[in-house]
Specification:
By secondary structure, this protein is α/β, with parallel strands linked by helices. The protein has three domains: about 120 residues, Methylthiotransferase, N-terminal domain (Rossmann fold); about 220 residues, pyruvate-formate lyase- activating enzyme, CATH 3.80.30; about 90 residues, OB fold (Dihydrolipoamide Acetyltransferase, E2P) (Beta Barrel), CATH 2.40.50. Helices cover about 35% and strands about 20% of the residues. It is globular. The structure holds S-adenosyl-L-homocysteine and iron/sulfur cluster.
């Protein structure tokens, strides 16, 4: 088999990151090796996102760049996958003659066959078939990819919630859960390769298994907790309307479950929440936040907000701002509302002007920025358990001021805060901390991260599951 090179460009959410890995592994079976250099590629796959207008524009501008490359590299194959592909289908081929393949969100398993057809027949193909409730096939766990400490694992596909602004149910199809055995098999295979942490992915993990009579999400977490060698479990995303007591108790009872929840609120105004079809009120949301904090006092809570949903008045926006101030999120993603046909909000009257939307966005982001920074600064002086992902990008920039230059490592706390740290020891540079749990003394809090130095584990922390000590 001739070795061919594959370049994948991924836009969008974690689910797309996971899908891109599956694409790479599917195509490895027909001789494609991944390259990080665009110019080396025989096949380029663009995995697209359509959740907001900006993401879609990014996809088309990248595809425009590829069309130019194809002018002097005629044998290059270009494929477009993901949510834009699902939505636009044939129209992409009509609009862009350079594209050879458009494949939808449920076509990844068919990719090897599709690409082989294009290689042998030089044809152009659209495959955007969607089954009503498709079986989710076993994922492929690759042999050759470098081991990473933390990996995503998709446990569900699609969404049945139909929030008024959202295109996901239309491009990802009906909600379907993977069989628990298949998920556990994948996680065990990942752990066998050295993975220590998994993030379980679904649009609304709380409804895992419900319409197929599988186990509940909390039960799934309890099963995953038993996987030997796995150190941490995370998940995203949780819908506030379905967040139940069993899952909230999990933050206390499921030992490997990290102390972080991403709980998108979208708006703090009941009027807007209703128009968004979110099915909870601000009071119910705030009750869930209190319950989470009562159960797990150290829990970090992050959220998503949409600013400028049709009909959002100053009063509605103030209520959102008040909610943000009340909850004191650990992190916040705020987005400008964008029309995403065929999402029903497209037809709502009272669209908000872009200048008002961007002003509101600035206000909310400025508030959250100072809050995140001050929360990070409050952690200075504490010791945090950090699961090390590897050497930090800034490693090359040198070590701590005033000390011996030593290697900079990076990892995350259970609360999902990024920590860059160094090790003070004569043998520090020969240590490999990748995948190790390290106790780090926090020296500084920044806007997006913390920094500090590794310390000996305190006696009270020794012997914790998954924690490894070393002499500093
Ligand atoms: N299933 C997840 C969200 C998936 S989309 C959930 O329910 O939370 C990720 C985020 O994109 C959403 O939380 C929302 O804040 C944002 N988003 C989705 N559609 C949008 C739109 N039309 N305009 C602006 N932001 C949008
Ligand atoms: Fe979109 Fe709502 Fe489903 Fe999230 S829950 S994917 S926002 S429809």
């Amino acid at each position: 088999m001739n070795l061919k090179r594959l370049y994948i460009h991924t836009i969008g959410c974690q689910m797309n990151v996971y899908d891109s890995e599956q694409i790479a592994m599917q195509l490895a079976a027909i001789g494609y090796e991944q390259t990080a250099t665009l110019d080396d590629a025989d096949l380029i796959i663009v995995n697209t996102c359509t959740v907001r207008a900006k993401a879609e524009q990014k996809a088309f501008s990248f595809l425009g760049r590829l069309a130019k490359i194809k002018r002097y590299k005629k044998r290059l194959i270009i494929g477009v996958g993901g949510c834009v592909a699902q939505q636009e289908g044939q129209r992409i081929l009509e609009r862009m003659p350079a594209i050879d393949l458009v494949f939808g969100t449920q076509a990844i398993e068919r990719l090897p066959h599709l690409i082989q057809q294009i290689e042998s027949r030089h044809c152009r193909i659209v495959d955007v078939d969607m089954a009503e409730r498709p079986d989710i096939p076993d994922s492929v766990v690759g042999q050759q990819e470098p081991v990473q400490v933390a990996k995503f694992v998709t446990i569900m596909r699609g969404c049945d919630n139909y929030c008024a602004y959202c295109v996901v149910p239309f491009v990802r199809g009906r909600e379907t859960s993977r069989q628990p055995e298949s998920i556990i098999r994948e996680i065990k295979a990942l752990v066998a390769k050295g993975v220590k942490e998994v993030t379980l992915l679904g649009q609304n993990v709380n409804s895992y298994g419900k319409n197929q009579n599988l186990c509940s999400f909390a039960e799934l977490l309890a099963m995953i907790n038993e996987v030997e060698g796995l150190v941490r479990i995370r998940f995203t995303t949780s819908h506030p309307k379905d967040l139940g007591t069993d899952l909230i108790s999990g933050f206390k009872d499921i030992i490997k479950l990290c102390s972080h929840i991403h709980l998108p609120v979208q708006s703090g105004s009941n009027r807007i929440l209703k128009r968004m079809n979110r099915n909870y009120t601000r009071e119910q949301y705030l009750d869930k936040v209190s319950e989470l904090r009562d159960t797990c006092p150290q829990i970090a809570i992050t959220s998503d907000i949409i600013v400028g949903f049709p009909g959002e008045t100053e009063t509605d926006f103030d209520q959102t701002l008040q909610l943000v101030e009340t909850v004191e999120f650990d992190g916040l993603f705020a987005f400008q509302y964008s029309d995403r046909p065929p999402a029903p909000a497209v037809k709502l009257p009272d669209k908000i002007s872009t200048s008002i939307i961007s002003n509101r966005l600035q206000v909310i982001l400025a508030y959250q920025d100072q809050l995140t920074r001050s929360k990070n600064q409050q952690m200075v002086g504490s010791t945090q358990q950090v699961l090390t992902d590897g050497l930090s990008k800034k490693e090359a920039a040198g070590g701590p001021a005033g000390g011996d230059p030593s290697l900079q490592w990076t990892g995350r706390t259970s609360t999902n805060k990024i920590v860059n740290f160094y090790v003070v020891a004569s043998t520090a540079n020969s240590l490999n901390l990748t995948g190790k749990m390290v106790a780090v003394h926090i020296d500084e809090g920044h806007s997006h991260s913390l920094s500090g130095r590794a310390v000996n584990l305190e006696p009270s922390l020794r012997g914790l599951k998954g924690v490894e000590n070393y002499a500093a």
